[in-house]
Each structure stands twice: as C-alpha cells, then as structure tokens.
Amino acid sequence: MSQATAPLSVLPTEADIAEEEKRAKKHAFEMNKLSKRLHREVGEAITDFNMIEDGDKVMVCMSGGKDSYGMLDILMNLQKRAPIRFEIVAVNLDQKQPGFPEHVLPEYLTKVGVPFRIEEQDTYSVVKRVVPEGKTTCSLCSRLRRGILYRVATELGCTKIALGHHRDDILQTVFMNMFFGSTLKGMPPKLVTDNGEHVVIRPMAYCREKDLAKYAEWREFPIIPCNLCGSQEGLQRQQMREMINEWDAKFPGRVDNMFTALSNIIPSHMMDRKLYPFTTIKATGTPMAGGDIAFDEEENCGPSETPVSIINIRSGD
Questions:
Q1: How many CB atoms lie within 10 A of CB 175?
Q2: Taking the alpha carbons of 29, 30, 32, 33 in that order, is the dihedral positive or negative?
Q3: What does pTM read for this prediction?
C-alpha cells in the first residue's frame, strides 16, 4: 500500500518576484504622490485662511479616527519645514464609551513624540440618559465635547483649535443646512467660537475623504471606531454622504465644482436682503459688471437648442 506524498510548496519564480517588486514600486510611487498632494492642500488651506501664525500653540483634537490621525501627521511634518514657529499639542477626550481602548492613543502619541493630554469626561452616560432610545446622539455629543475642548484649550494656553473636518464634511454640511435647515451655511475653514475666546481652524478643508482614507491605510494609523452612536444609517449626514458620493461617481468633476462654488459667491445674484441692498438699487444708466449676464447660458452648461448671438428687441416689434 503506497503512502500519499504531501504536496510540495510552490516557490515563487523570478517572474513572480519581479512582478511583486513592480507592484510595490508602483504603490510606493502612488503613495508618495498622495502624501505630497495632501501636504500641499493642507499648506494651501493654512495660507489661504491664515490659519496658523508665528508663535501659535495649536491644539490638535484627536478622536482616534482616520481624519484626526492624518491631520496630526501632516501638521507635524509641516511644522518641521514651516517658515514660522508654532507648537502642537494633541488632545483626546475620553468619553468613557464601553470598550473604548484607552491605551491606543497614549501609546501612539508617545511613539510619535508629540505633547498630548487625555481628558477623561463621562459624556457617554449623559448622552444615553438624556437622548431617547433610537434617536441620534450626534448633536448633544458634539455640544458636550465642544464645551470640554474649549475649556481644555484655555487651560493649555492654546491659541488655535484644529479640527479634522475635510472637504466632504464641508459639502455635506452645506446640503444638510439647505435641505433640513432652510439656510445656505457651510462649515468655515476658520471661525471664532461663540464665546469669542478661541479660533477654530480646519486645516484639511481642501482634502478629499477618500484620499485621507488611503493615507491612513498606508500610514497604518491605529484607528479607533466611534461606537457611541452605532451605525445610525438614517442620519442626515449619511444621506448627504451617499448623495455626494453618487454624484462623484456618475459625474466626475461635479463635486469639485460644488466645492469651488463655495469660494465664488455673488451676493447680488442670491436672495439674501441682508447681504445685498435689493430694495434700494436703481438703474444708473451705467453698465454693471456681471449684471443680467448671469442669466445667459454659460459655455460650460452645454449649448442651447437654438443658439443666438445677438437679439435686438425694439418696442412695438
């Protein structure tokens, strides 16, 4: 009776090794491009909105998600070669969520060598006690977290508070406010807090979420998921995210145009009487820049069905 022989392990061929090296080089090249793009976008946002000034002490708010890790990593890199001097201190609010891995952030922040503070406040119990079962917890959680972080910023003597919101967050906020709040309001890259004591900045305002996700995977950040609210698929923000992502997939460039539009606002062609004196404008007999040209069809909107270069309208014709 013959004994069956065990299958021999297949050793990689020279062609396999060469193909693997080729893939590795391509991946390294793509990640290098991605890193440069993100650093450039953060640098441009900081410059465009004068987010960080010489002598600033920046409190980088760390949630343990991909966005805050990316923000800290990029700011630390920019700090080394910036023409100005500024300090960075990382702050995490431990909200006492069940199962929250308390060791992850302190270990990481110690490893990268950045000063940090872990603030422990049991906001989880407060939110669960106040918010009815089945209702979304984000609003109350955000208010509680914001108040605590402002206090910590004061205690640490920080002049700027950096949040990890990116381009997608900003666009989602615009549509949430428009659809559900009847207001055309976004998420500004820089603002003064309601109490007038702090300046909040969003250095990643120009960065795409999908780029930050790839960057986090490449840098192998120890991501901590937020389990306070669960999945909550019915959240308004989730609806906006899905809508924008669908547009981005079906109509390349549309999301870029929408984001650029936030910096190209023409008050005279909106409807806010507080921003433009509609009730007092009168004909002056002098041509106005823009004027009713805004009602003409733009070239990038596609050709009209019956193109007309000049239309003369005379009384009685």
A1: 18
A2: positive
A3: 0.82
